[in-house]
Design goal:
By secondary structure, this protein is α/β, with parallel strands linked by helices. It has two domains: 3-134, Rossmann fold; 136-336 and 364-384, 2-Layer Sandwich (Dihydrodipicolinate Reductase, domain 2). The chain is built from eleven helices and 17 strands. Helix 4 (88-96) runs parallel beside helix 5, helix 6 crosses helix 8 and helix 8 crosses helix 11 (365-384). The protein is globular. The N and C termini lie far apart (44 Å). Bound molecules: nicotinamide-adenine-dinucleotide. Residues 11-16, 44-45, 48, 66, 81-84, 86, 104-105, 131, 133, 189 line the site of nicotinamide-adenine-dinucleotide.
Length: 394
């Protein structure tokens, strides 16, 4: 029988729900796991009513004290789904207590925090994981496998966008718009994902960033307290404003070690796009194209095919035995969604903790630190209006 793994989840917002759902479902769909998660305890802030959250999602215990929770000797894996500034403190406690540790992306709000986390994890020899969940969409995992197998040959171009439009002036000053809590805006939120995906799919590392532009279009937003306390009903006069000091959009160019040229674009003000996380990779022998709003599909172009019939193939990545992770799910074309990426990641975390290999590589803290360095280099490029070599960013 598989060994159990007692999990403590720290946080219960958006990601708190996706991770709870993943732990709840994973062993029901993946029958071969060497470790099976037990939903031991969840932390939430008093006003969030963690007891109610625990009851709803199947956590055995609820707590408003994250410190004692991460130190609890019954816990095997601590999972952090808190705002970015709140990754470092619980991570350090968990590592000191000898726990395995998972955290949401980006690894931390700042490069300095991320560096501290990597060093502590190395010292503790801890198993660590970062939830770059898009790696575990079957179509993205397939893109990684195709590029690795040489299907598109030498890579020339990598084009990445992550476009959303929820960040207009009507959106209040959430933690996501405050540098001291988030580190950055669309950059750490969205570019983090596409930098990770580009590194994952190409298997290559970025060596230089240039031409970065970071723009804050909406400089003031309604304070959340004043919106929540009747600002909506009480009219505009009831609202107070605060400064948004993070980017709403960041664009930059990059070079990869093996010579590919890349572009990255993240925005929360890309009117018309809700969650368009997209990547295109063009190579000598072919190309791949992925768009998350159509996440079951991977487009593939075979540049070696007979020209008479050559064109983009639209692969529906739902075929068990052919496409990653699908074995655990539904019959062909019975469509997967956002939540499956998280459940697939929970399966891979359990595999690694049980001494087995993940279906596709899973980023640990050291790997996610490379993504964080790229994000930092892009911010430096934007600030100083210059090219930044990755060797300059430690
Ligand atoms: N992988 C993804 O696709 C994805 C998507 C969204 C967010 N994220 C990441 O997940 C993390 C959490 O984001 P979210 O969208 O769930 O945020 P959220 O605001 O919905 O929830 C955050 C939760 O953290 C806890 N929390 C808040 N402030 C805290 C504090 N000061 N001390 C302790 N706990 C606190 C609370 O339980 C809160 O509900 C962030 O790092 C974010 O970048 C990842």
């Amino acid at each position: 029988m598989a060994k159990t793994c007692n999990v403590a989840l720290i946080g219960q917002g958006f990601m708190g729900r996706t991770h709870s759902n993943a732990y709840l479902k994973v062993a029901k769909f993946f029958g071969d796991l060497p470790r099976v998660p037990v939903m031991h305890s969840v932390f939430g802030m008093k006003e969030e009513n963690p007891e109610q959250f625990a009851g709803k999602w199947g956590w055995q215990n609820a707590s408003t004290d994250w410190k004692s929770l991460v130190r609890n000797e019954d816990i095997d894996l601590v999972d952090l789904v808190t705002p970015n500034y709140m990754h470092l403190p619980p991570a350090m406690e968990a590592l000191a207590a000898g726990k395995a540790l998972a955290t949401e992306k980006p690894l931390a709000g700042t490069l300095a925090d991320a560096r501290e986390m990597v060093a502590a994890a190395k010292k503790a020899k801890a198993k660590t994981f970062v939830w770059y969940n898009y790696r575990r969409c079957p179509a993205v995992a397939l893109a990684h496998q195709l590029v690795k197998a040489g299907k598109i040959g030498r890579v020339y171009h990598v084009r990445c966008v992550y476009l959303q439009d929820w960040g207009g002036p009507e959106t209040p000053l959430l933690w996501r718009f405050q540098k001291k809590l988030a580190g950055s805006g669309a950059h750490g939120d969205l570019n983090a994902h596409i930098v990770d995906m580009a590194r994952f799919i190409t298997g290559d590392e970025i060596t230089e960033i240039s031409g970065a532009i970071a723009e804050t279009f909406i400089k003031e937003r309604d304070l959340l307290e004043t919106v929540a306390s009747g600002g909506l009903g009480g009219g505009k006069g009831a609202r107070k404003k605060g400064r948004s000091d993070v980017d709403d959009a960041v664009l930059f160019l990059a070079r990869f070690k093996n010579g590919a040229a890349a572009s990255f674009e993240a925005s929360r003000l890309a009117t018309g796009y809700k969650n368009q996380n997209g990547i295109e990779v063009h190579g000598e022998k072919g190309a791949i194209r992925f768009r998350f709003e159509d996440m079951n599909y991977l487009d593939y172009y075979d540049n070696t095919a007979d020209k008479k019939v050559q064109g983009w193939s639209r692969i529906i990545c739902t075929s068990a035995g052919n496409h990653p992770y699908v074995e655990a799910w539904w019959p062909d074309a019975h469509i997967l969604g956002y939540e499956h990426g998280f459940i697939n990641q929970a399966a891979d975390i359990m595999r690694v903790l049980g001494g087995k290999k993940p279906e596709v590589p899973i980023p640990d803290f050291a790997d996610a630190y490379e993504t964080q360095r790229v994000l930092e280099a892009a911010l430096l490029s934007a600030k100083n209006r210059c090219a930044v070599k990755m060797s300059e960013v430690k």
